[in-house]
Amino acid sequence: MKRILKMKALRWLLAIFILLITIIGLCNYWVISSTKKQLYNNINGIPFNKAGIVLGTNKMWRGEENPFFKYRIEAAVALFKAGKINHIIVSGDNHVSYYDEPMDMKNALVKLGVPDSCITLDYAGFRTFDSVIRCKEIFGQDSITIISQAFHNERALFIANYYKMHAIGFDAKDVAEAFSIQTQLREYFAKCKAVLDLYVFHASPHFLGKKVKI
C-alpha cells in the first residue's frame, strides 16, 4: 500500500514538474516571438527616439568590471553620438546608500562624453518592470529606446507593449556564455514572471511619485 501511494505521489510530482516546465516554455516563447521585430543591433538601421533608457545592473561582479554594465553603457553612448537618441534615462536600484546603479551609470556615461544635462536618473528602477512603467508614467516617455542585452530587452519590450508604449530595443553586446549562463537561466523564470505580473497578478511598480519633465 505504501509503495502504491509513493508511486502515485511521484507521478503527481512528475506531472506538476512537466506542467511548470511547459508554462515557463510557453511564456518564454510568447515574450520572445512577440518582440523580435522590435529589436535592433545596427545603429544605422534603428529609428530615432528622443530618449533611451539604460536598464540597470551592478557595476562590479566578483571584484571585476561587470561586462553587462560595460556593454550597456557603450551601447547607450554609441546611440547618443550617432544622433539616434538625445537624452538618456538611467534606471536602476538605489535601495541602500552604498549601492547606486543610476549614479554609476551616469558617471560612466559622462566619462565617455555624454553631457550631464542629457542624463536623467531614475532611482526607483528596482526591477525591469518598474523601470519600464516609470519611463512612461513618471518621465513621460511613450516612445522609447530600451538599451540592454537582447534577452533582457525582450522582457522589457513585452512589458512596454502591454502598456501600449511605442518601444524599440537596442541590443548591447552579448556577454561570453561562460560568464552569463547563470543570468541566462534566471531569465527563463524572469520572462515567466513578467507574464504572470501583467496578466495574472496585475502588479504595480514599488513607487511612482511626481512626474519629471525631460
Task: Give a nutshell description of this structure.
The chain contains six helices and eight strands; from the N terminus they run αββββαβαβαβαβα.
Low-confidence stretches: none
- Rg, alpha carbons: 19 Å
**What is the global morphology?**
elongated
User: What is the terminal-to-terminal distance?
Assistant: 70 Å
Structural class: alpha/beta
Helix content: 40-55%
Count of structural domains: 1
From the 3D coordinates, which CATH architecture would you assign?
A: 3-Layer(aba) Sandwich
Structural summary, described in words:
The protein is α/β, with parallel strands linked by helices and 214 residues long. The chain has one domain (2-199): HUPs (Rossmann fold). Helix content is 50%, strand content 15%. The protein contains six helices and eight strands. The chain has helices at residues 2-35, 67-81, 101-111, 128-137, 150-162, 177-199; strands spanning 39-40, 51-55, 60-61, 64-65, 87-91, 119-122, 143-148, 166-171. The strands form two sheets. It has a six-stranded parallel beta sheet with strand order 1-8-7-2-5-6, with helices on both faces. The protein is elongated. The mean pLDDT is 94.
